[in-house]
Amino acid sequence: MDTIGRREEQILLAISYLGDEAYLVSVRKYLSEIQCRPISIGAVHIPLRRLEKEKYIRAHLGNPTPSRGGRRKKIYTLTDRAIRVLEENKRVHDLLWSSYTGLKT
Prior knowledge:
Elements lengths: L5 H13 L5 H12 L6 H12 L3 E5 L12 E5 L1 H19 L7
Antiparallel strand pairs: 1-2
Helix pairs in contact: 1-2
């Protein structure tokens, strides 16, 4: 079974949600908003590189935009491998949470 860390899972879910707008800055912004705290670019960029290297995501360059001085954004999409690992993680999380009865002290 493939395994990914929590941050990587969050990034994959953000990419899924953002669709054609899934680039480094938008992923960081989305995760910061969801978690109600700032997340550094490095905390997203480094896992993105690993996820791409390990074939969980693919990247392609978007169209140049005037707001970026004509530069192109690197847009990320999920691979089938990422979808499989996300579905497995959700299955396991759901099972674990369904049996959670609260903290015992």
